[in-house]
């Protein structure tokens, strides 16, 4: 198993990548908070913030949880329930009249 | 260390201990089977009292209040304590054998799931002893279940009990997903797996995604009842429909959890007794996958009468009609398997064929429900009771009995009596049709469900009486089955490795299998290993393993951890902080001891 | 250990426990998805009591969000350290992750008590119920994570967390990062999109 792990590890990102990702996450968080306080952005708040947090989500899942470099099976095991959860959320928002077409 | 002491040399105490600490999937499967069957009899007994009460107008057998407890516990017991664990019995015993593994991926987690299920089921039924059995229906609609309208502990027993069972199910779900994905024998590609194993995989995927939703719904309910939150509080601006959505988001996938394993069993039995491979294997597998995915898109068809609006009604009507397609496809595949085959109507085969016939009827009434205007008349009447009993009794139960007769020789090394089995089959099928067919008419004539009596002037007496007689016929059938078991326990014909000449790997080893399953893990070369010339190797499997096989042995930490959960639950139920903390303490100790004990799979 | 592994064929070449952890994480997506959905469905529908605008403290929560994000960095550095057999830095990064998690929980405890003083409790209104149950469930997950990390730290001090046990840290890491990722969603949806 340690051999397999080493093989995995060779494909894993290095410390430099981790630090870069941390930097990007920090910047995005600052931007999010900034956007929240800038009056001009109020109308666009939802799409901008959702996009920014989606980017953070993908960065953490992809690099810190190694989904990007690991076996694709893990991507499937994570993606399917995630998609179901998102679809359910959207459906409930429609059903309760929070969003409309 | 494998359990090596011969049975007679072990004292009763050490024998019980070996069962309490077992991590062997075959033993856990037997434990599930015995417990589930006991709960099945209990749920059936509850049904018989209900049917006695409804055998005539104003029968006066039980009060309305007791009747509420009976139908709530009958439904809850049959769904969570009978059908699901009976399916689990098969997952446990059969799947590792079918995939050529020595055990599941996490044997202690497996034992843990069983003990949590058993203790959870007992916890819920203790409510009868204190005269406060759950009484708000098996789907406990808000706000009937609120502290205001259900002030007793009945609903608390129900909500907490279901949470406990949810833990067991999710743990088992993860276990079997990993087992099937990761522990297959060399050469057993996914599309070479037996259909029963495929359906198990799909079912577990539904379990781990659907159960968290009811977990949340129940947390909201318990918080409302215990801490005065507002999740289902109309006065605070909340919506009771939130419960219905969350419950059915779980509840509809749940019915696929109930039926897919039985469909998997039928997909094994029919080919064996038709002497023909399953027709359209790939289509059957993809249909199962499609049912699991589409099953997430139909839940609000349980809510057509709440006023969702025309768009929501139409969308869910369409998805519900769509999901009939993959289900129907499987039926055609089973029939096509039998077509031109050399049919052998053993009891197992009879039950599987009975499944097909009765599930078709249940499916047809289901499609009738898919139309919102039609459903407006049918829902909450005996028509829908007829529908789901045709698919659950005529479907799941018949399928599970088919599996019992099919795999009994492998599990216990003895054949069940075929002649007694046929009595069991005919009593059950005739009984089921007598009970549930009239309910279509009773329902359309206006008799609502969950009522404890009805007026003589309605003209429903005869049909209700017929239904009651049918219920007793079914009960007799189940007793005949118990008789079959007792009769053949000592005197039954000994079973060889492959009494039915089946095609799958479980038939390649002795009945019952040795504790290590396969002497050598086979390499699989075909979808039908025992029916193909070079289906697997080494052929035959050597009688004895070539070298020592390491088996992990038992552990009592899964049992201890399970006890911790129940004690914590009891604390929550009684509002006793000390008991709850004690339970959590036991739980934490159990988890750490489990994690740190030397245990090599 | 090596002998058992040599005889342990797996269909995917992957460790069963890692597959199991991802399956568990998939399950948790539905758990938090249901909680977040409920929060969103009830947003703005409270009939009385404090509302989001009145009570949520964005600057404070931004800091705690940053703390949790940095804890993920510490976590992945702990994994990198244990993989290369670096005992000292494994312990440093595990301790750092746990500490940052505790700081996050501290911020949350402060936030909860402040809200209660300002008149928002579980019972007050829809916002109180949905907010506390959603963030409380998340906080409980963080607390379990902290306990897990501290347990790993103890194992390390017992000399039982060498490079061959790296998977144990990886599994804890997957859990920890997922809990962080859920917070990313909660922070956006609850705090920024009021």
Number of DSSP strand runs of chain A: 0
Q: Biggest sheet of chain B, open or closed, and with what strands and sense?
A: 2 strands, antiparallel
Order of secondary-structure elements of chain B: HHHHHHHHHHHHHHEEHH
What's the total helix number of chain B?
Answer: 16
Low-confidence stretches of chain B: none
Helix content of chain A: over 70%
Return the CATH architecture of chain B.
Answer: Up-down Bundle
Oligomer: heterotrimer
Q: State the end-to-end distance of chain A.
A: 52 Å
Overall 3D shape of chain A = flat
Q: What does the average pLDDT of chain B come to?
A: 96
Provide the domain count of chain A.
Answer: 2
Task: Please describe the biggest sheet of chain A, giving its number of strands, its sense, and whether it closes into a barrel.
Answer: none
From the alpha carbons, calculate the radius of gyration of chain A and give it in angstroms. 18 Å
CATH topology of chain B: Cytochrome C Oxidase, Chain A
Could you list the spans of chain A in which at least 5 consecutive residues all have pLDDT below 50? 1-10
* CATH class value of chain B: Mainly Alpha
Which term fits the overall shape of chain B?
Answer: globular
Describe this structure in words.
The complex is a heterotrimer of chains A (101), B (601) and C (194). With 101 residues, chain A is mainly alpha-helical. Chain A has two domains: 2-70; 71-101. Chain A is built from four helices and no strands. In chain A, helix 2 runs antiparallel to helix 3 (45-64). The N and C termini of chain A lie far apart (52 Å). Residues 1-10 of chain A have low confidence and may be disordered. Chain B is mostly helical. Chain C has a single domain, classed as Up-down Bundle (Four Helix Bundle (Hemerythrin (Met), subunit A)). Chain C is 78% helix and 0% strand. The model of chain C is unreliable at 1-7 (pLDDT under 50). Chains in contact: A-B, A-C, B-C. The interface between B and C is large, with 43 and 38 residues.
Quick summary of this structure?
Chain A has four helices and no strands. With 101 residues, chain A is mainly alpha-helical. The chains are: A mainly alpha (101), B mainly alpha (601), C mainly alpha (194).
Write the layout of secondary structure elements.
The complex is a heterotrimer of chains A (101), B (601) and C (194).
Chain A (H helix, E strand, L loop, with lengths): L1 H10 L3 H23 L7 H20 L7 H24 L6
Chain B lengths: L11 H9 L4 H29 L10 H36 L7 H23 L24 H29 L12 H33 L13 H34 L6 H14 L15 H29 L8 H23 L2 H7 L3 H31 L5 H27 L16 H31 L31 E2 L11 E2 L19 H18 L2 H20 L5
Antiparallel strand pairs in B: 1-2
Helix pairs in contact in B: 2-3, 2-4, 2-14, 3-4, 3-5, 3-7, 3-12, 4-5, 4-15, 5-6, 5-15, 6-7, 6-8, 7-10, 7-12, 8-9, 9-10, 10-12, 10-13, 12-13, 13-14, 15-16
Chain C lengths: L1 H5 L9 H27 L9 H4 L2 H26 L3 H31 L8 H32 L8 H27 L2
Helix pairs in contact in C: 2-6, 2-7, 4-5, 4-7, 5-6, 6-7
């Amino acid at each position: 198993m340690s051999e397999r792990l080493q093989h995995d590890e060779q494909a894993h990102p290095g410390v430099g990548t981790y630090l870069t990702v941390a930097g990007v996450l920090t910047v995005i968080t600052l931007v999010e908070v900034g956007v929240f306080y800038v009056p001009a952005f109020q109308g666009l708040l939802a799409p901008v913030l959702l996009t920014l947090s989606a980017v953070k989500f993908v960065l953490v899942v992809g690099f810190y949880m190694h989904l990007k470099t690991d076996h694709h099976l893990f991507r499937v095991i994570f993606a399917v329930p995630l998609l179901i959860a998102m679809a359910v959320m959207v459906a409930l928002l429609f059903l309760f009249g929070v969003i409309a077409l | 260390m494998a359990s090596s002491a011969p049975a007679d040399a072990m004292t009763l105490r050490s024998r019980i201990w070996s069962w309490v600490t077992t991590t062997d999937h075959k033993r856990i499967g037997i434990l599930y089977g015995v417990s589930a069957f006991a709960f099945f009899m209990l749920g059936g007994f509850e049904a018989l009292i209900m049917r006695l009460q409804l055998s005539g107008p104003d029968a006066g057998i039980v009060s309305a209040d007791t009747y509420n407890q009976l139908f709530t516990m009958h439904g809850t017991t049959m769904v969570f304590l009978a059908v699901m664990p009976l399916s689990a019995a098969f997952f446990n015993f059969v799947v590792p054998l079918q995939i050529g593994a020595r055990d599941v991926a996490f044997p202690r987690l497996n034992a843990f799931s069983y003990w949590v299920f058993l203790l959870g089921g007992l916890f819920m039924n203790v409510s009868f002893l204190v005269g406060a059995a759950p009484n708000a229906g098996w789907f406990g609609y808000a706000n009937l279940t609120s502290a205001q309208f259900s002030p007793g502990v009945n609903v608390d027993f129900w909500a907490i009990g279901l949470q406990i069972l949810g833990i067991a199910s999710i743990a088992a779900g993860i276990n079997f997903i990993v087992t099937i994905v990761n522990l297959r024998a060399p050469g057993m590609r996914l599309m070479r797996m037996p259909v029963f194993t495929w359906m198990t995989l799909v079912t577990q995927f539904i379990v781990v995604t659907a159960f968290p939703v009811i977990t949340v719904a129940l947390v909201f309910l318990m918080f409302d009842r215990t801490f005065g939150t507002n999740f289902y509080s109309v006065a605070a601006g909340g919506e009771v429909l939130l419960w219905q959505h969350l419950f059915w988001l779980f509840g509809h996938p749940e019915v696929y959890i109930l039926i897919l394993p039985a469909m998997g069993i039928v997909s094994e039995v029919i080919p064996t007794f038709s002497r023909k491979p399953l027709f359209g294997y790939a289509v059957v597998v993809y249909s199962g996958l499609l049912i699991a995915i589409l099953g997430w898109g139909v839940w609000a068809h349980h809510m057509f009468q709440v006023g969702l609006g025309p768009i929501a009604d139409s969308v869910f009507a369409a998805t519900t009609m769509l999901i009939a397609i993959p289900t129907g496809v499987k039926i055609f595949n089973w029939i096509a398997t039998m077509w031109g085959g050399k049919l052998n109507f053993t009891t197992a085969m009879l039950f599987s064929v009975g499944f097909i016939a009765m599930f078709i009827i249940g499916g047809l009434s289901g499609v009738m429900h898919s139309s919102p205007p039609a459903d407006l008349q049918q829902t909450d009447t005996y028509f829908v009771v007829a529908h789901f009993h045709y698919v659950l009794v005529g479907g799941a139960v018949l399928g599970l009995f088919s599996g019992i007769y099919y795999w009994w020789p492998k599990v216990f090394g003895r054949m069940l009596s075929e002649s007694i089995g046929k009595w069991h089959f005919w009593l059950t099928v005739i009984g089921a049709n007598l009970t549930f067919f009239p309910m279509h008419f009773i329902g359309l004539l206006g008799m609502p469900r969950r009522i404890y009596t009805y007026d003589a002037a309605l003209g429903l007496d005869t049909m209700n009486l017929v239904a009651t007689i049918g219920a007793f016929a079914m009960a007799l059938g189940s007793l005949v089955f118990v008789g079959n078991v007792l009769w053949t326990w000592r005197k039954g014909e000994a079973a060889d490795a492959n009494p039915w000449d089946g095609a799958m790997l479980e038939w390649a080893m002795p009945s019952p299998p040795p504790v290590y399953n396969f002497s050598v893990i086979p390499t699989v070369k075909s979808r039908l290993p025992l029916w193909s010339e070079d289906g697997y190797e080494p052929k035959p499997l050597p009688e004895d393993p070539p070298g020592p096989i390491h088996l992990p042995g038992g552990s009592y930490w899964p049992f201890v951890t399970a006890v911790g959960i129940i004690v914590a639950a009891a604390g929550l139920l009684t509002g006793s902080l000390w008991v709850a903390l004690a339970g959590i303490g036991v739980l934490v100790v159990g988890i750490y001891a489990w994690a740190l004990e030397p245990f090599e799979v | 250990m090596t002998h058992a592994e040599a005889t342990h064929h797996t269909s995917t070449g992957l460790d069963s426990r890692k597959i199991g952890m991802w399956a568990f994480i998939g399950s948790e997506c539905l758990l938090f998805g249901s909680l977040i959905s409920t929060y969103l469905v009830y947003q703005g529908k409270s009939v009385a009591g404090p509302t989001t605008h009145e009570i949520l403290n964005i600057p404070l929560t931004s800091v705690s969000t940053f703390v949790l994000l940095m804890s993920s960095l510490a976590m992945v550095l702990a994994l990198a350290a244990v993989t290369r057999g670096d005992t000292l830095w494994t312990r440093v990064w595990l301790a750092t992750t746990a500490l940052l998690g505790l700081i996050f929980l501290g911020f949350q405890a402060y936030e909860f008590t402040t809200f209660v003083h300002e008149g928002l409790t579980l019972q007050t209104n829809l916002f109180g119920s949905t907010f506390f149950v959603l963030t409380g469930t998340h906080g409980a997950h963080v607390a379990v994570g902290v306990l897990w990390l501290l347990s790993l730290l103890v194992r390390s001090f017992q000399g039982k967390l060498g490079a061959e046990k790296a998977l144990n840290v990886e599994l804890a890491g997957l859990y920890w990062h997922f809990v962080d990722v859920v917070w990313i969603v909660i922070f956006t949806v609850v705090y920024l999109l009021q």
